[in-house]
Design brief:
By secondary structure, this protein is of the alpha/beta class. The chain contains seven helices and eleven strands. It binds adenosine monophosphate (AMP).
């Protein structure tokens, strides 16, 4: 039996394809040079390539049996998501952090926060009992403070180069991020052997 696997296009796809290949799952044609979104793979599996934020949706509703995407995407999708997170693939490591212009203080007053991660930010500042106005952004996050759009941002930080280049410094870590394998709840039961075989093979690849 075969699985339908939803993959997060971009950096995660690039890093997880070699891992899937090691686990015996390889697309029958080159994903990079194709405009297709669905690819047949070895073992009769199907790979579907999509935006990260669509991966949890496809997996929750069972249009894909399993999915591979970042923990940031999973957290932003929601805490009570109806799928299982089965494995940390150990790739795509970074941190979700608050960042502010160098030298500025958070103070105690109301703050405006520019971010792609509105749900995560809302939960985070609620927990801190801080009153914030959230400004949803799709990109151009790091320039929001310089442009006077927001007091601080919540964003993904890897080396910190992007922040520094825009006069920002990282402050608090909200979450440690890496790429995860998620599994549809029904598939976990009805396709247990296939799911378990994939999880076990990928676990071996991760272990190295
Ligand atoms: P850096 O300048 O190395 O701190 O990288 C920060 C930028 O790269 C952020 O704006 C992120 O959008 C992106 N980025 C870095 N690492 C990741 C990752 N693991 N997953 C997704 N985006 C990332």
């Amino acid at each position: 039996m075969s699985l339908t696997i939803a993959l997060n296009r971009g950096r995660i796809l690039k890093e997880c394809l070699p891992m899937l290949a090691e686990a015996g799952i390889e697309p029958l044609e080159d994903i990079d040079s194709s405009r297709k979104l669905v690819f047949e793979a070895t073992g009769g599996h199907k790979l579907i390539v999509m935006r990260g934020s669509d991966v949890p949706t496809y997996v929750e509703y069972g249009a894909a049996d399993v999915g591979i995407t970042g923990k940031d995407t999973i957290l932003e999708y929601g805490r009570d998501a109806r799928f299982y997170e089965r494995l940390d693939l150990g790739i795509g490591r970074c941190k979700l952090m608050t960042a502010m212009p160098e030298g500025e203080e958070m103070g105690n007053g109301p703050l405006t926060v520019g971010t792609k991660f509105v749900n995560i930010s809302r939960a985070y500042f609620e927990e801190l009992n801080r009153h914030v106005t959230l400004i949803p952004l799709a990109g151009a996050i790091e320039i929001a403070p310089i442009m006077g759009l927001a007091d601080l941002i919540v964003d993904i930080v890897d080396t910190g180069n992007t922040l520094r280049a825009n006069g920002l410094t990282a402050r608090e870590t909200i979450a440690d991020i890496s790429t995860r394998l998620i599994v549809n709840r029904a598939a976990q039961k009805t396709r247990f052997d296939d799911v378990q075989s994939l999880v076990n093979k990928l676990r071996e690849v991760v272990a190295g």
